Fold these 4 entries.
Entry 1:
Amino acid sequence: MHTLSVYPKSIPSLEDVQTFVMSLPEGDWVTASRGVIESDDGRVYLDYDNDYGNYFNNYLEPREREQLATRLGFAPSLALHLHVSTHYRHSRELAQLICEMLVKKWGGGWSDE
């Protein structure tokens, strides 16, 4: 499964992200920290990672930290990970669209890793 990550500049609460996901057609919140968004030929799982700041500070290599912080213009403390389903033809395009929507809503940036 391929993952894209959104690093919002203004930090939405879990409830804000749940509301966002459920406002999308075929969006649903399915576990404590995971939502799913579907289309006719796409499916994306969105994970709310409020521990990303710890990962950023303690587990990324210094060069990776510097590059990401420079690209974003800030050190991220939250990440929204979008996992692209391989079973649906246009899941990657759906994930990219959702990334753009999230960045438009909360600022920041995203990466396609």
Entry 2:
Amino acid sequence: MTASDTRSYDWRLAAVCLSLSGFGLSAVPFVGTRYGDWPEAIALGIGLLPLVYLCIHMALRITDRFEALEKRISELEGRK
């Protein structure tokens, strides 16, 4: 994958995760007050799991981003 494809994939992934989590978390008060605790827990899980996945994905990708940053810094230092 090229750098531009990776960046667009990251933005799409973040958008999908944030939209899913927004829908799930906004449903928590309405589902919980009417139907009880179990649907409220399911809505909370639907709201929080995409955020957890996004955090794990970002943590795993941070090393790739640091390597790219170090490569750019070494290129800039080599030009001087």
Entry 3:
Amino acid sequence: MTATTAPDASPNDASLAGARAWFADRGLSRPREGRVLAGVAAAFARRYELNPLVARVATVAVALVLSPIVYIVAWILMPQDPAVVPAAPAAPARA
């Protein structure tokens, strides 16, 4: 099982090529055949010898559970805009 990475990429590099080399060293590469979207669930299924359907269902379940949690955490941590104080009404212009 080989992955397409830069020939001089090290898994310790802080770059995209380094990240791809890290995944390739662990046997995680997206297959060209049998994938639905990008092949991430298929790669985990192949690496950990799972049924591809089980891997896909687990991927969707994790996305559905983590997305609301991330939103709630952002809701708690993100400050509100400061309160707007209404401006005093302008005096009518005299001619």
Entry 4:
Amino acid sequence: MSTGDKIPIRGRKIPIQMFAPPACVLATLLAVSLASGQVPPNATLLQLNASDALCLDGRPAFIYLATAPSPSDLWVLNFGASPELAFCVDLKSCLAIREYMAAQATPTSFLLAGWGVQSRNCVDNPDFCNANHVLFPMGAFEPGCDLGLMVSQDDVVVNETFSLRFRGPQIVAAALGALIRGGAGPMAGARSVLLTGVTFGGMAAVLAADLVQAELTRALPALERFKVLPVDALHPRYYSMVWMAWGNFFSDSWMTPALQFLANVTGGPSAQPASPALRACAAGGLPLWECLYLNATLPHVAAPLFLLQQLGSVWDYQCAYEGAAPTDSLLQVQCSKSSSQYRHYYTCVQYPDLCSGAIVANFSVPLQREYSAYANTSIRTGNGYFLHSCYLGVYSMSGRGNTSVWNIISINGVTMREAVSAWWAGGNASSPMLHHDGYWNPSGVPPAGADAAGSPMSHNGSASTEPGAAAGAPIVPPWTSRFFTNPTCRGFPWY
């Protein structure tokens, strides 16, 4: 079960809220993982004592550490735990998040997802099953700490009694310093390090990649390999569906003003970003907020990286392009505009098989091409990507049956996990490893091998009635969508 899925309750399909309370998230992850034989890594609190490493609300920063089952020189640094909105989009959201964080006690432990790169099952996850894991808390919900994508460093003075703190680079330095401790810490023997994160955690991993690499190489002269695995990190600058309801008036989504706000606290007192990639981007003449869009910064990231990207992600569809900025509520479904005026667009992101073919042709497919254009700015030796068109939510942290979803989704016979393994094993001089799925088919032809004839029903038992739906499009089985072109997208209960 993945974020963005829906579960049946009394015959209805109720969306799973991406930003469910942490206790519910942990309980669900634990129940699903244990039922499948997975044992999620349990990370313990490590308080940071550096005076300048602070959370948004001013308390000392902290991280979580889960050591490997047996001694290991492999480390995975996780930026954020789940795909929540991990940065302040405006002052109002910052103040609301600060108030929430200040009222929460810091948990003494945190259960990682236990799937994908975090799985301890060496059949499911042969490359990283015996890795040490470090969680850098990001976002509003506990454990929450940094709200500046790990690259912002400044204070926003609210009044004479408190300020909002942005200390991402200081937190990175303090955390790695505490873990290595001049050669005496648990990370002192690290030889291979993977930096990863999901959605805005992935975006932070890209922006801070070279900053983290510089800290590691300075403290670990014997480090042999550092690579970055951003998951659903791309958020293209693309117009919003909301404006389509107002006479095709195309406008930016809320991401542009949100990144403009964030840019004001990213440069720091010296107006120079701590991130080398951001500095290089800004030196080319772009305003800093525009460099926060990854297509502008990816060409400047020196660390080898591999993009795992959904074309387009569930979060982006609901909370960036179809909906509005979630400043009052951080619930994914509540981003959507579900009134009668926006009904067709809401249907598209909640039940894509019932979407109008016209919207798929004129919005979804052009958006998918934007994701591809962003990803292609990262192409160089030692890099790669896996761009798939399934609509599944947080697949990299999800499981189905007894395996992680990344062992099921494939492009031309290569699974997501196999693609990551080949990139991880390859040297930095290897050719780019590019796996690109097909785009959605607006005419509504289901993927080959989807067994439509064996189960000729859509999820609600009828053909699409949305205006603009392709005439005569086959009614598809309940485990796929008539717009998807990859057969491995089937079999996932995301309705």
